C-alpha cells in the first residue's frame, strides 16, 4: 500500500530547501561553536589542557569516520528517514552535552553529536539533489547550500563567544539543541517523503574496515598534534590505517554490492571534485582554528568581540555562495574554481603578514573578506563537481564521500599546520617575546595554507578541464520521488 505523505503539497521545493539548508547549517555550527568556549569548558568540567582538545576531536572523529556509512544508509533506508533520525540523535546529544557535569559525559555526548551529523549531512545533500534536477535551479540550490555551510562555521565562532560570555558555556549546546529540534520539525513538515533509491544490502565488512580506517587516521592525526608524529601510539594508528585501507580495497573488489561502487567515479569529475575538496578542507578548518587564537591571544580581544569579528567573513561567504552559480555560467566551472582558490590563497597570504602590534581593522578584516569570497565560491563549485553525473541511487553516498574528504582533509591539514605553527613558535621562543613567537607560528600556518591552495588551483586547472571534456551530461531527474512499492 502506498504510504501517506503528510507534507503539505502546497509547499514548494524552496520551503524544503530552507529546511535542508538549516540542517546543514546546524552541523557546521556545531563544528566551530565550541572553539571560543574551550577555556571555560575546561574549567567547568575539570579537563586538562590535552583533554580539552577532545571536546573538538570527539565530534570530528565520529563525524569524519561515519559519513560514508551515513550516506549509504540514506540511499538504502530512505534519505528523509535517515535525516530525521540523525536530527533526533543530534538534538538529544546536544542537550546531554549542555547538562554534562563530567568530562566523560561531555566527550561522549560530543561523539554522539558527530554520529548524528554523519547521518544529517549526506542525507540532506542527497535530498537537495532529488528536489532540484541538474541545471540552473540546482546551481542556485547549491549556492544556498554553500552559503549556509560557510556561514555556519563563522556563526559558530560568533555564537560561541556571545553565549559563553552572556550565560556560560552550557548554553552553546542548549541553543544547538533547540535549533536542531526546530529544524527537525521543519524537515518533517516540508520535505516530501521519498522511497529508498539504493539497491542491495549493506556492505558490512567494507563498511567496518573503512570506518575503522578513518577512525584510526583521524585519531592518529589529532593525537599527533599533542604527542608528536613519532609517538608510538600515533605511528601505530597510521599503520592500522594502512592495513585497514588495504583490506577495504580487497573487500570492495570482491563484494557484489560494494560500499564505494565503481559507477560512482565513472564521470571522472567525482574524483577530481573530492581531491580538490580535501585540499580546500585542509585549510578551511585550520582557518577557524588559528584566526580566533590570534584575535584572543595576541590582539587581546574578548570572546564576544572575537565572535563579532567573524560577521564580515560570514557575509562575504553568503555573498560568494550566491554569486557562484552566476559566475560559473558566465566563465565556466574550471575558471570559477581556479579563480576562487587563488582568491582565497591571496587572502591567506595577506593574513600571513599579521603582527603583534596589529589590529582587527588593519590585519584581519580585509583578508578575511577575501578569504570568505574565495572559500564560498570554491565550496559551491566543488560540491557540484563531486556529485555531478552520479546515479540517483548513489546520491547519498556521493554526499557522504564529499563530506568525508572535506572532514578528513581538514583533520590532516589542521594536524600538519598545528605542528608547523608549534615548531615555528618553539624555535622563535628562544630569542623573541611570547606573543612574537605565537604570531610567528600563526603566520607560518597562514602562509603554508596559501601555498596549499595555489597547488589546488593548479590541479583544478588541470583536472577539471580534462574531465569536463569526457564527462557525460547527466539525465534530468524528477523533482522529488514519491513513495511507491519497490
UniProtKB/TrEMBL annotation:
- Where is it localised? Cell membrane
SUPFAM superfamilies per UniProt: MFS general substrate transporter (SSF103473)
Topologically, how does it sit relative to the membrane? Multi-pass membrane protein
Query: Per its UniProt record, what CDD domains does this chain match?
Result: MFS_MMR_MDR_like
Superkingdom, according to UniProt?
A: Bacteria
Q: Which UniProt keywords apply?
A: Antibiotic resistance, Cell membrane, Membrane, Transmembrane, Transmembrane helix, Transport
User: Can you give the residue ranges of the Major facilitator superfamily (MFS) profile domain?
Assistant: 16-468
Residue intervals passing through the bilayer:
12-34, 54-74, 81-101, 107-129, 141-163, 169-190, 202-221, 233-251, 272-294, 300-319, 331-352, 364-387, 408-429, 441-463
Q: Which family does it belong to?
A: Belongs to the major facilitator superfamily. TCR/Tet family.
**Mind telling me what this protein is named?**
DHA2 family efflux MFS transporter permease subunit
- InterPro entries for the chain: EmrB-like, MFS, MFS_dom, MFS_trans_sf, Sugar_transporter_CS, Tet-R_TetA/multi-R_MdtG-like
Amino acid at each position: 500500500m502506498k504510504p501517506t505523505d503528510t507534507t503539505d503539497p502546497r509547499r514548494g521545493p524552496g520551503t524544503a530547501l530552507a529546511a535542508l539548508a538549516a540542517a546543514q547549517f546546524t552541523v557546521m555550527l556545531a563544528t566551530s561553536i565550541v572553539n571560543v568556549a574551550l577555556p571555560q569548558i575546561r574549567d567547568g568540567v575539570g579537563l586538562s589542557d590535552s583533554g580539552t582538545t577532545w571536546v573538538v576531536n570527539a565530534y570530528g572523529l565520529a563525524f569524519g569516520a561515519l559519513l560514508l556509512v551515513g550516506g549509504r544508509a540514506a540511499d538504502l533506508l530512505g534519505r528523509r528517514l535517515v535525516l530525521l533520525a540523525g536530527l533526533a540523535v543530534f538534538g538529544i546529544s546536544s542537550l546531554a552535552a549542555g547538562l554534562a557535569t563530567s568530562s566523560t559525559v561531555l566527550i561522549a555526548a560530543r561523539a554522539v553529536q558527530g554520529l548524528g551529523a554523519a547521518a544529517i549531512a549526506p542525507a540532506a545533500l542527497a535530498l537537495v539533489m532529488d528536489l532540484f534536477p541538474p541545471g540552473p535551479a540546482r546551481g542556485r540550490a547549491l549556492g544556498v547550500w554553500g552559503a549556509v555551510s560557510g556561514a555556519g562555521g563563522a556563526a559558530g565562532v560568533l555564537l560561541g563567544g556571545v553565549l559563553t560570555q552572556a550565560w556560560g558555556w552550557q548554553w552553546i549546546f542548549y541553543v544547538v539543541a533547540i535549533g536542531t529540534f526546530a529544524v527537525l520539525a521543519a524537515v518533517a513538515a516540508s520535505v516530501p517523503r521519498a522511497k529508498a533509491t539504493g539497491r542491495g544490502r549493506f556492505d558490512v565488512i567494507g563498511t567496518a574496515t573503512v570506518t575503522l580506517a578513518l577512525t584510526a587516521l583521524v585519531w592518529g592525526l589529532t593525537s599527533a598534534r599533542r604527542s608528536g608524529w613519532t609517538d608510538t601510539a600515533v605511528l601505530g594508528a597510521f599503520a592500522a590505517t594502512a592495513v585497514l585501507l588495504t583490506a577495504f580495497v580487497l573487500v570492495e573488489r570482491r563484494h557484489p554490492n560494494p560500499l564505494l561502487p565503481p559507477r560512482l567515479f565513472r564521470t571522472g569529475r567525482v574524483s577530481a571534485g573530492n581531491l580538490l575538496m580535501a585540499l580546500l578542507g585542509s585549510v578551511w578548518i585550520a582557518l577557524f582554528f588559528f584566526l580566533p587564537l590570534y584575535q584572543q591571544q595576541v590582539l587581546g580581544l574578548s570572546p564576544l568581540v572575537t565572535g563579532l569579528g567573524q560577521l564580515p567573513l560570514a557575509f562575504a561567504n553568503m555573498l560568494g555562495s550566491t554569486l557562484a552559480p552566476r559566475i560559473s555560467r558566465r566563465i565556466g566551472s574550471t575558471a570559477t574554481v581556479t579563480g576562487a582558490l587563488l582568491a582565497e590563497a591571496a587572502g591567506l597570504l595577506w593574513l600571513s603578514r599579521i603582527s603583534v602590534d596589529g589590529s582587527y581593522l588593519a590585519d584581519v578584516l580585509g583578508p578575511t573578506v577575501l578569504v570568505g569570497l574565495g572559500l564560498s565560491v570554491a565550496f559551491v563549485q566543488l560540491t557540484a563537481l563531486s556529485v555531478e553525473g552520479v546515479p540517483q541511487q548513489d546520491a547519498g553516498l556521493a554526499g557522504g564521500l564529499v563530506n568525508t574528504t572535506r572532514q578528513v582533509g581538514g583533520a590532516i591539514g589542521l594536524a600538519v599546520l598545528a605542528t608547523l605553527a608549534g615548531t615555528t613558535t618553539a624555535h622563535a621562543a628562544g630569542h623573541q617575546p611570547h606573543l612574537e613567537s605565537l604570531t610567528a607560528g600563526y603566520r607560518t600556518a597562514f602562509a603554508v595554507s596559501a601555498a596549499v591552495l595555489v597547488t589546488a588551483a593548479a590541479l583544478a586547472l588541470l583536472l577539471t578541464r580534462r574531465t569536463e571534456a569526457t564527462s557525460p551530461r547527466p539525465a534530468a531527474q524528477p523533482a522529488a520521488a514519491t513513495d511507491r512499492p519497490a
